[in-house]
Amino acid sequence: MKEESKKITTYLVQRGNFENRDFKKGIDTIVSFQYMGSSEYEWGALPESLRRIRGGFDKYTYMDIPIKDKTITVFLKEEHLENILEYLKDLSENNFRLQERSDFDTYINPSKHFKCNTDFWWDLENDIMFWKENEEFKTKFKKLIKNQ
Prior knowledge:
Elements: E1 13-18, E2 31-33, H1 39-42, H2 45-55, E3 60-67, E4 70-77, H3 84-92, H4 104-108, E5 120-123, E6 128-132, H5 135-147
Antiparallel strand pairs: 1-2, 1-5, 3-4, 4-6, 5-6
């Protein structure tokens, strides 16, 4: 009997921007994380998620997902493959109650009044990273995430 897949939900999504910062180490050399303003982001949530990702790295994969006129590159556990499109659509439509805004909705659904200032998102509960399609960033990310 096939196991029922579980819908992905979240509360903590870290925002970031592509950057070349050779003076930093690890993922911080290619991503500058935005200040989120809540203690949930300050007390080790990023390193804990990264530790879990590294511990289960062999269960991760990459995929490009089209949403509207955009393409999102996603780094995720294979167990989330079946539900990732629904998850991204829900995030783009603000269907989650998040601790802080993700800005993903602004990227997918641009308006005259609000500009998306985010390139990279990291779901700290589900250990999913995703970003605006960018082959140069993807190449750097693959080298960094694998070698840490």
